[in-house]
Amino acid sequence: MTPTDIILHQQSRMLELAFDDGKRYKLPFEFLRVYSPSAEVRGHGKGQETLQVGKRNVMLTEIEPAGSYGVKLTFDDGHDTGLYSWEYLHEMGQYQDAMWHDYLGKLEEAGASRDKA
Q1: Angstrom distance (rounded) from CA 46 to CA 116
Q2: Helices 86-94, 96-110: inter-axial angle, 10-degree rounding
Q3: Domain range list for the chain
Q4: What three-state secondary structure class fits 16?
């Protein structure tokens, strides 16, 4: 699964991806940041995830190819260690609503906010 089009929308803070299966997704920068595939966010195993807070206005500042399998995204909060495979980005698009709902639930449970303190 590979993208046929990648468009960075700075104004609306979205990364738009079209895939060779005909699917097209718009992924908000905040969503991409809080679900970074990096060890810093995901940890090294189940239950070691670090809840990302205060990322509502995060900006995506750079997109670099990562071989032929994905991209490395750099955010304006300094985060740049996540390598997003095309497969993972497609999954994020496919399950965006459920993943976002899950994230908002975890924030609420932690008494945390999407806004910076």
Answers
A1: 27
A2: 80
A3: 3-110
A4: strand
CA distances from 88 to 2, 12, 22 (A): 11, 22, 16
Residues 59-97 have pLDDT tens digits of: 999 999 998 999 999 999 999 998 999 999 999 999 999
The model carries a pTM of 0.94
Q: What are residue 17's DSSP bridge partners?
A: 6, 25
Going by CATH, does the domain composed of 3-110 fall within 1.10.10.10?
A: no
CA-based nearest residue to 93, from 20, 9, 19, 7 = 19
- 18 vs 106: CA distance, rounded Å: 29
